[in-house]
Each structure stands twice: as C-alpha cells, then as structure tokens.
Design a protein that fits this description.
The complex is a heterodimer of chains A (226) and B (770). Chain A has eight helices and nine strands. By secondary structure, chain A is α/β, with parallel strands linked by helices. In chain A, helix 3 packs across helix 4. Chain B has 770 residues and is α+β, with helices and mostly antiparallel strands. In chain B, strands 4-3-2-5-1-6 form a six-stranded mixed sheet. In chain B, strand 8 and strand 9 form a beta hairpin. The chains are: A alpha/beta (226), B alpha+beta (770). The interface between A and B is medium-sized, with 33 and 28 residues.
Chain lengths: 226, 770
C-alpha cells in the first residue's frame, strides 16, 4: 500500500457564462499514491485542464477539499490569501507543470530555463545540464526555444520539471502538438523518469495510447458532460 | 485543382478580398479606432503647430512689407496728430497715409488704415501690396472702423514715402522715422524659426507613432495574410488593397484632423496673436495661415511614407539590408557626423542636416543600445530572475522600438523647448529690465536742445534724491580697418552720463572696470552681433568714423543685444564730435522724489513744446512679461501635447506587447511566484524601459537646446542666447516618465488577473520572440 500524496474529496467547479452556470467538475473524489500515475481522459471541454489547474491551485474550487503533500485546501476558506500563498509555495517547490506548448521562457536558453526553474524551487542548478543530457538534448543546451523543434522543446520542459525534483507532475496534453514518433519518445522519457524518481504524475490527455502508460485512469468525459 | 474555384473567379463575391481584409477590424474595432485616432490627433497637433507658425510667418512678412518704407510726418510742437493735420498736409500736396493704432477696451491692438491712400507708396511696392488686401479682420481695419471703436488708447501716424523731402512739407511739420513700437522683428523671426524647427520634429514624432501603430496592426493580421496567400491571392494584390485601405482611412481621418488643428490654432491664435503683436511687433492677420490643401497633402504623404514605406522600399531594403553590427556602426557614424557637423556648420542648412543626422543616429542607436546593455547585464547576472528580467527588457525594447524612439524624441523636444523658453524668458526679462531700467523714456523733440535738458537735470541731482537719468543719442558710424576703409555702417548708442542706469547691464565679455573706462571715454562697448560679425573681442580695437573723424577705440566690453539685426557701438556721448549726425535723441529718467510731472513740466518749458512723447517703462515691462508668459505657455502646451501623444502610443503598444507576452508572465505564477511578485517584475521592467528612454533623451534634449541657442540663432541672426539647463525640469520629466511606466505596469497587472491562452506557436507574432 503506497502512501497517499493526493486526496480529492467532493471537488466541484462551475463557470459562469452569461446568466448560465456551467458545471465543469462535480463532486469528484479520488486519491493518488506517491509514485503513482493517473491519466485524466475525456473529450475536449470535459474539464481535464480545469482539474489540473485546481490540483495546482491556479484555480480555486467552488466546493470540496484537496489534500496534497500533507496540506489541506478547503474550498471557500476564509483565509483565501493564505491559501493562494500556500499553493504558490507548493507549486514552486513540489509541483511540476507541463503544458502542451510554451513551457519555456523564450528569452532564455534551454539551459537557462532549466536553471531558472531549479533555482526557483530552491534546488541546485548545477545539475541542469545533466538533466538536458539525460533527456537527449545536452548538445542543444545553449540554444533558445525558437531554435529547436517542438519535441526538443518538450524534452527541455521535462528536464526543467525533473530538475526541480517534484513530488507531483501535472502534464496537460504534453504531447498534443507533436507527431506520433516524437510523442512516443517524449512519453517514454516521461514515464521512465517518473518511475525512476518516484514522483507522482497526473496526465491530462485524449490520447488513449498515452493514457495507457499510466497506472490509473479517470475518464472525466464519462463523469462530466459539459 | 480543377474543381477548386479561384478567389478571382466569379464564384467568389467581387469584394471578397477587401471584405476578408477588413474582417480583422470587425473583430478588433478598437484597433481601427486607435489607428484613426492616432492619425486624427497627429494631424491635429501638426496642423495646429504649423498653422500658428505659418500664420505668424505670414504676418511677419506682411507686417514688414507694410511698414517697409518707414517715414512719418510729425508736428514740430510735439503734439499728437489729428485729422486736421492730415487734411492740411494733403492740401499742401504731401502724399500721406493715415495709420491709426487703437487699443480697444478689450482685445488686442487694431490698426486703422485708408486703403485709398495706399497709392502713396506706389503700385507694386511692398506697402501697397500688403494693404491691397481686403480689410476683413484684425488687426487691419478701415480707418473709419478703427476711429469708431471705444478705445483706451489711440494714436494717429501719418506715413509718407521715402521720396517726400522735409522741404516739401508745410511749416510746423518735419519728417521722422516711423517706428510704431520697438523694432524686434528679428526676434520674431528667431521665434518663428524655432517654432518651425519644432514643427518638423512634431511631424517626425507623429510619423514614428503612426508607423508603430500601423505595424502593430499588420503584425496581428499576418496570419490572415498567410491564409489568403495559401488561398492563392498574390501578395502584391494584398499589398495594393492594404495601401488603398490606409489611404482611405487617412483621407477620412486627416480631414477632421486638419479641421481640429485649425480649430486649435484659432483657439490659441488670439492669445498667440496678442503675444506676437505685443512682443515682436508682428500683427497677426486674420485668415493668413495655410489653407486646407497643404496640411492635408502633407499629412497624407506622412501617413503613406510612415505606413507604406516598407512596401515602397521593399526592393531597396532587400538589396541593402545590413547586418546588426553594420547597422550599429552606421548609426554611430551618423551620430558622430551629425555632432561634428553641428559644431562646424558654416550655415543654417548644414545645421538642420546635422540635427537630422543626430536624430537618425540616436533613433537607430537608442533601442539597440538599451537592448545591448540589458543583454550584457543579463549575462553578468547570477540570479536567474534578474537574468530573465534583463532578457525580457531587451525583447521589450526591440519590440517597442518605434514608440520608444518617438517618446525619446518627444522628451528631448520638450526638454529643449522648456530650456529654450525658460532661457528666452529669463534672458529677455533681464535684458528688458536693463534696457528699461529708468522709469520713463522721453523723446527729445526735433529742433530742440538736449543739452539744456541735461543741464537742468544735472542741476536737480543734488536736491532730488533718487533722481537717475541719462541722455541717449542715436546715430550712425562707419566701421573701417586698414584693409577695408569703407566698412559697414553700425548704429551708435551714446549715453551720458554713464551712470547707474547702464552700469547694471550684464556683459558677455568685459575688461577690468569697463564702465569706469567707458565713462572716462577710454573706449567703446560693442554688441554681440558686431563682435561676431567682425570677430572682435575685449582688447581689440575698432576703427570708427564718427562724423568725419576716424578714431581707433579699444573694445571695453561686449553686451548682449537681442532682437537687433545690426551691429551697435556703445560709447560715452561726451566723446562724440560736434559734427556727429544725431538721428534721434531721448532721455531715460527715474525721477525719484522729484516726480515725473515736475520733470515733464520743466522739460516742456525748456523745449517750448506743449506735449512730450513720454513712455512709462514699467507698463511696457509689465505688458512684455504678460505676453511672454502667454506665448511661452502656448509653446509649452503644444510640446506637452506631443509628449502626451507619444506616451499614449507607448502605453497602447506596451499593452499590446504585454498582452502577447502575458502567457510567459503567467508561467512565472505557474512556477510558484505569487501574483504580486510577478507584478513587481512587470513594474521593474516598465520602469526600466521608460527610465532608460528618459535617461537617453536627456543628452539629446540638452544637445538640441545647445543647437537652438548656440548654433541656429547665431547663424540666423548673429546673436546667441545663454545656454542654461534646468535640472528641476528634468526631475519633472522623470516623474512624468515614472507615471507612464506605472500606468503600463498597472495595465499589465490587470492582464495578469485574466485567464491567458497559451500561444500555439513560439512565433514572433504570438509574443514568443527573444
């Protein structure tokens, strides 16, 4: 029995569109153990990105509780400001987020990006080049994001995430903009490193093959019909 | 492909392409509005400035033509002329033209003239040309209209041509030079020239702003153009439609802009007119500014060049595009050449070319220099956040090049105008104070004896505390040297005694105890114009022919003499030879306890006249100060408007830039920075940009001030203004820039709070460039 890293209880999120309230996540509950991986699947608009945003505090839920890394975040708490600060600290030190595109600062080289993220997390940036090498793009360390391919950019984004030694990786369609071959390669590296370093992973994807790489699967399309 | 309809086949609507192009503005109406507003405001600003300048220029020309032949008939007894004098002179066959100056209870000075009498000056001469025009407004009105106005002051002059001789006049009259008020025509010229130079700068700044807004719009439409290209529309066709689009928008926007500019000029015109009238003796004619065609065409040309220059010069640019180091070298070369040329320029056109070169070099170099500096700082930063911030700064500066350069030029211009205007104010205030040191100025009537009046005033000196006076004699002298015995004529200003009324004059250059030496008749002082033209300084000797007697006199001092075109020599009147041809004589008197009434009564008795020509210098000074304030407030207002326009453009561009870049700022939040920390980074970036521009605008502004006062004025008019800098104003500008930076940061902070969509590519279009 693995120790629980994340516990979600009765999580709900609505958006207001004009006069209408649109529920995106409703009374969602699940847990994720340390080192485990979970695929969030569902069609576009099913709430995968919203849930990922809720799980790293970029958006706050309307109802429910999130327990992450022994910290409890209740919806609608009076100390909203403290909650935001606590989420910021968690994201800075323990949560790595990977988006489909534009994960890197365009004005910094790949190496500088990795160093930046590591230093923000309070980790030693000296290993940054190593991480790039482990991800197979060591020779591109001095290049800028616009000087490398989409797949290489995503590898750099993963190097950035692993360099901060996260407890949890949230990846939102990390291979969505890549061709099949590159996508497979990036996915292989992601699962391999995640397993080797024992961090947990939540992966939002509509790609069934990618989702199959995760240990658990949560179909939001099935749960929420938006 | 066979089944695929071409865009230009009948299956597509005829106006498919323009509709496709305009669809961008349907989705972004504010962008269209911003572009149109920018054209309207730019046109308004330039037209307003230009209208005022051209109005002043036209008025100056006409005024000069109207009074070109300055000769008037005056009464022997010193009394003011009345209609009976006009009648008796005409009956005696003397051709005279009435010139009735009226100061109404409210409003500015009017001049009543009789167009029928203008023939005195002969057809085709300057005066008749000036007066042939319909008398439909201020300040020239028909003499009857002027006479019927309720006035607080009026004065009739009777002008007569140069051909009229004193012998031809009936008894009781003599001829005198016509000078309705102090002749400061060159000062007016100088002011108008400076206004014109600033007008050109305003045009340049507005062109830069227009270009920046237009290019921004184009960048946001690049995807649409690419799509049209993929649909098979040739790029040339898109470009032609774009040219048509901007031309149409310009036409629609320029016309109201010109109208607003004229409205602005008309609103400011009355105050400006009064100021010019009072200050420089330039009556402002109604409706004398440029018409509609010129400003419309100029602004259309500016819009076309600013917005479509790329299309027009595309081939040229492709052929001659330079790599970055070469561009930097070229910019430095332009800057260096401009600076050297401004220093050494022998004539005005070269100075203007030098200014253009320096502005081109500075405009090219400034953003590159800031970006380079930022990259250098980034390279030396160990802290990743600082490194990122400096790299972002470099991107920001490169992306906002045009509005930043426009802001730099506007700041430099405002700085130069402020320094120029304040220097004008300070200098002329001091200069007027010196020239009008005495409380009253009294003309010595013709055919009377100034010596007797001087003797009486000398006699009063012991018993009347506070009495200060001197006698002023004006005439001409011939300047000569060994190589050129028949040198130019110079004005002679002779005063006696050389007392406290002149000893307070500021001197540009002086020997030891110059006033004592002048009082002892040991030499002369010369005005700046003469010093510059003859290359004379203290210790040199001037060869003067006063009367028939040539004399070599050492130069004891050089005094500033603003607004006069000719060289002048100041000497002790006691040293004038007896045969010196006195052209004009007056007394400057501060009566002290004696009182002015007692002085005038005594002088009337001594000279045997019923009325004296008396001027209250205090009132003149007060009036001059008032009109200075008004004139300069207007100039400041126009330049500040330009600055506000530049700041607004930067604000708009900054907002668009950050909108495109917002994702990356949001990324910092994702990486665990708090919103207020990111907002702090935004603030630092915005302040670094605006602060950097303000710092780089400072030397440019100081240099421009130097060029205006030390190069343009001396080359154009022979005299310079003192160079002064005003650090308090720099601080004010720095605060203004700070406010611009804070506004940008505040707008961006709002952006941070909104949901941001990740860019779909790392292309420049989406804000992902480095």
């Amino acid at each position: 029995m693995t120790e629980s890293l994340l516990a979600v209880r009765g999580l709900s999120k609505h958006f207001v569109s004009g006069n209408e309230t649109v529920p995106v996540i409703e009374k969602l509950s699940f847990t994720l153990g340390q080192g485990q991986s979970l695929a969030l699947t569902g069609r576009s608009g099913s709430g995968k990105s919203t849930l990922l945003n809720l799980l790293c505090g970029l958006e706050l839920p309307d109802a429910g509780t999130i327990v992450l890394h022994d910290r409890v975040f209740e919806a609608g708490g009076a100390a909203a400001r403290r909650t935001v600060t606590a989420w910021s600290t968690l994201r800075r030190q323990h949560i790595g987020v990977v988006f489909q595109e534009a994960n890197l600062m365009p004005a910094l080289s790949l190496l500088e990006n990795v160093q930046f993220r590591a230093q923000l997390a309070g980790r030693d940036p000296a290993n940054s080049e190593d991480w790039l090498t482990r991800l197979g793009i060591g020779e591109l360390a001095q290049r800028y994001p616009d000087q490398v391919s989409g797949g290489q950019r995503q590898r750099a984004a993963l190097a950035m995430v692993f360099a901060m030694e996260p407890a949890l990786i949230l990846a939102d369609e990390p291979t969505g903009s890549l061709d099949r071959h590159t996508s497979d390669e990036v996915a292989r590296v992601l699962f391999d490193l995640q397993a080797r370093h024992g961090c947990s992973l939540i992966l939002g994807t509509h790609d069934a093959e990618l989702a199959a790489g995760c240990q658990q699967r949560l179909d939001l399309g099935h749960l929420n019909a938006v | 492909m066979k089944g695929l309809p071409s865009l230009f086949s009948p299956t597509f609507p005829a106006l498919f392409l323009p509709r496709a192009l305009l669809s961008h503005y349907r989705r972004h109406p504010l962008q269209l509005l911003a572009l149109a507003a920018m054209i309207v405001i730019a046109t308004m600003l330039w037209t307003g400035m230009n209208h005022l300048t051209s109005q002043a220029r036209a008025s100056l020309d006409q005024s000069e033509r109207a009074v070109a032949q300055r000769q008037q008939v005056v009464r022997d007894d010193g009394r003011a002329l009345v209609v009976e004098d006009f009648v008796s002179l005409r009956l005696a066959g003397v051709c005279v033209m009435p010139w009735l100056e009226v100061t109404p209870e409210t409003g500015s000075r009017l001049v009543g003239i009789d167009p029928l009498a203008a023939h005195c000056f002969g057809a085709g001469t300057g005066a008749s040309q000036a007066l042939d025009q319909p008398l439909d407004g201020k300040p020239f009105v028909d003499v009857h209209a002027a006479a019927s106005i309720s006035a607080r002051d009026s004065h009739l002059y009777l002008l007569t041509p140069e051909t009229t001789q004193t012998t031809g006049l009936p008894g009781g009259y003599y001829l005198k030079t016509f000078s309705a008020s102090p002749d400061t025509g060159e000062l007016g010229d100088s002011f108008v020239l400076n206004l014109e130079a600033l007008g050109v700068l305003v045009l340049l700044i507005t062109a830069l702003l227009l270009r920046s807004v237009y290019l921004l719009g184009l960048a946001q439409r690049r995807d649409s153009f690419a799509l049209l290209h993929r649909f098979g529309v040739p790029p040339g066709r898109v470009q032609r439609w774009l040219a048509l689009e901007i031309l149409a928008l310009s036409l629609v926007s320029v016309v109201p802009g010109v109208w607003l500019g004229r409205w602005l000029a008309a609103g400011l015109g009355s105050g400006f007119g009064e100021a010019l009238d009072g200050l420089f003796d330039i009556p402002l004619y109604a409706g004398q500014g440029q018409g509609w065609i010129t400003p419309v065409l100029v602004m259309l040309a500016v819009v076309v060049i600013a917005c479509l220059g790329d299309l027009l010069l595309l081939r040229f640019r492709e052929r001659f595009s330079l790599p970055l180091p070469a561009r930097a070298a070229l910019a430095i070369a332009l800057l260096a050449a401009g600076l050297a040329m401004a220093w050494l320029a022998p004539s005005l056109p070269w100075v203007f070319i030098a200014v253009a070169l320096v502005f081109a070099g500075a405009g090219w170099l400034t953003p590159a220099a800031i970006a380079h500096l930022a990259l250098w700082r980034a390279g030396r930063s160990k802290a990743p956040l600082a490194r990122w911030r400096f790299r972002e700064l470099a991107v920001l500066v490169r992306r906002l090049t045009l509005p930043l350069v426009a802001l730099q030029f506007a700041l430099a211009m405002v700085l130069a105008v402020q320094a120029l205007v304040t220097t004008f104010e300070d200098t002329f205030d001091r200069w007027l104070g010196q020239r009008l040191e005495a409380a009253y100025y009294i003309e010595v009537p013709s055919r009377t004896d100034g010596h007797k009046a001087a003797a009486w005033l000398t006699g009063q000196q012991a018993s009347a505390p506070g009495l200060q006076w001197h006698r002023v004699i004006r005439g001409k002298a011939q300047l000569a040297d060994a190589e050129n015995p028949g040198g130019p004529q110079v004005d002679v200003l002779a005063v006696a005694p050389v007392g406290s009324l002149v000893r307070a004059w500021a001197l540009l250059e002086a020997a030891v105890q110059p006033w004592g030496a002048l009082a002892s008749g040991e030499g002369v002082m010369i005005n700046e114009q003469l010093a510059r033209r003859q290359n004379l300084g203290v210790g040199d000797s001037v060869q003067l022919t006063l009367g028939a007697q040539p004399r070599a006199l050492p130069v004891l001092g050089v005094y500033p003499d603003y607004g006069r075109p000719v060289g002048e020599v100041l000497l002790n009147a006691a040293t004038l030879p007896d045969n010196f041809d006195v052209r004009f004589e007056s007394l400057s008197v501060t009566p002290g306890e004696l009182g002015i009434t007692q002085v005038t009564s005594a002088l009337e008795q001594i000279w045997g006249v019923n009325e004296l020509s008396l001027r209250d210098n205090g009132t003149i000074r007060e009036l001059a100060t008032g009109v200075f304030d008004q004139t300069f407030a207007l100039t400041r207002a126009m330049t500040l408007l330009t600055l506000i326009l530049a700041a607004s453009a930067l604000l708009m561009m900054g907002w668009v830039f950050f909108s495109a870049r917002a994702w990356y700022f949001r990324l910092l939040v994702v990486w665990g920075m708090q919103q207020r920390e990111v907002a702090g980074q935004l603030l630092r970036l915005a302040l670094l940009v605006t602060g950097g521009i303000a710092v780089l605008a400072l030397p440019l502004g100081i240099w421009l001030t130097w060029v205006l006062v030390h190069r343009i004025n001396p080359l154009a008019f022979g005299w310079s203004l003192p160079m002064a800098v005003y650090p308090v104003f720099w601080l004010e500008l720095a605060v203004l820039n700070l406010a611009i930076g804070l506004s940008i940061a505040a707008l961006m902070r709002r952006q941070l709070g909104r949901p941001v969509v990740a860019p779909v590519s790392a292309s420049a279009l989406m804000g992902g460039e480095r």
